[in-house]
């Protein structure tokens, strides 16, 4: 009998410790994502000269609402900077998400740094292309909105008279509509307001769908732009000797998976 009591006490202590560890571990969440995309469009503009992109990242979230993350994608090696660079964009971000008291409205406050390893400063980008933005977002149900504010030059762009372009704003609104457990539709609009550049502002739009199949997400997104900044078909020359219309309306297809 004493042996049974001793075994029960040990088991209770052991399983109690395991439960405490599990509870502690549940405060921390680490996720990852990877995907292949037919094009990398950032705010409506192709970063890969309409070529495919491999993208992926990691996210850490604490139960308190704080989070950190990293996301990466290939870009055209001659897209930003005189020196070409590694043809890679690395994003680092962190912030805090929570819900406003006594409401169902979520908010998100954070900072995001875009880093282009190997890009050299030069005549076109005298201060480099790396960019840091602060952002604030709100969400309610399937509707979300976000404002981003650049505290550095906006991807190396200078103003009409050579001024710094910190203070550039990007406004974004999005809506998602789940139709079933496997199919979700979405739509969004964004507006870029480049500081101290008179004709660079433009609007981007998208409608998309994601279908879950065989453990992966199959995506399709129709993306378009308009406004003085791009006029729908911003042409850009690249090292392959051809002109790419990197702001034309396009359909981006993707296969991705979250872990």
Major β-sheet annotation: 12 strands, antiparallel, barrel
| Order of secondary-structure elements | HEEEEEEEEEEEEEEEE
Q: State the helical fraction.
A: under 10%
Structural class by sheet pairing and helices:
mainly beta
What's the total number of strands? 16
Shape: globular
SS field, number of helical segments: 1
General description of the model:
With 259 residues, this protein is mostly beta strands. The protein contains 1 helix and 16 strands. Helices cover 9% and strands 51% of the residues. The strands form 3 sheets. The chain has a 12-stranded antiparallel β-barrel with strand order 1-4-5-6-7-8-9-10-11-12-13-16. Strands 2-3 form a two-stranded antiparallel sheet. It is globular, with a radius of gyration of 23 Å. The model is unreliable at 1-24 (pLDDT under 50).
Can you lay out the helices and strands and say which pair or pack?
Elements: H1 2-25, E1 28-37, E2 41-42, E3 45-46, E4 53-62, E5 66-74, E6 88-99, E7 106-115, E8 131-140, E9 143-150, E10 169-178, E11 183-193, E12 202-213, E13 216-226, E14 235-237, E15 243-245, E16 250-258
Antiparallel strand pairs: 1-4, 1-16, 2-3, 4-5, 5-6, 6-7, 7-8, 8-9, 9-10, 10-11, 11-12, 12-13, 13-16, 14-15
